[in-house]
Design a protein that fits this description.
Elements lengths: L2 E6 L14 H19 L3 E4 L8 H10 L4 E8 L10 E4 L4 H17 L10 E3 L3 H4 L3 H8 L3 E9 L3 H9 L1 H16 L4 H17 L12 H13 L11
Parallel strand pairs: 1-2, 1-3, 3-6, 4-5
Antiparallel strand pairs: 4-6
Helix pairs in contact: 1-7, 2-5, 3-7
Amino acid sequence: MVKIYLSPSNQPNNKYIVGDTNEKAEMEAVAKIIKSILDKEYDCETFLATLNLGTDLNERTAEAKSNGCDIYLAIHSNAGGNNTASGAVAFYHPDSTTGKLLATNIVNELGVICPIESNRINSVINGMNAFGGIGYGEIRNPSSVGLTAVIAETDFHDNPLTAKWIIENKNEIARAYVNAIVKIFNINNKTNIEELEEVEEVAVVIKYYKVQVGAFSSKENAEKLLEKVKSLGFEDAFIQYN
């Protein structure tokens, strides 16, 4: 079973340009909805970061590792570009093909639902190029202990249009994240699994039922009844000798 660790932004000082809110509050809300959807609908295990933990190696990364997680998804919103920048951006580790695919899927899914067109030249970026090759901590640290790490910048919170969109569409945004995750990791929907189990259970039960239509001391009489039963359409009828 795939285990997913959600690490929402821990940056309350990153204020949204509208709505009297901040990156920490909005991304924690999105992460909680993502977890709710995955827990309810999909066959995976999801962990929400302990929210007062930092992002150092011995904090959220250690928590994700101790829970046996496969995926470390940091959920943020962005800033920069003179209040006109728009579009989702996601960062991955260059050694992880899966991480790059997940980052690409997240950007694509968010792009589908956002009515403000992205003006990003590059939306899927090597997260280890930051800070002169040191890389972002939430890419570097989880990757160092074997997790697939992605940082997703949902959209820009210093652009009035995209900030308002994030605030008003957290359910849709969470669903886009979920879609990206389940597609990459082929996570089954719980409803489909339950339906399949019900069908298999019925099939097993049916195999246990047999109907006896007669008992004879004469083989000739038994064969006559067998012919009659088969003539009625029961081609699998048979005689059992005791």
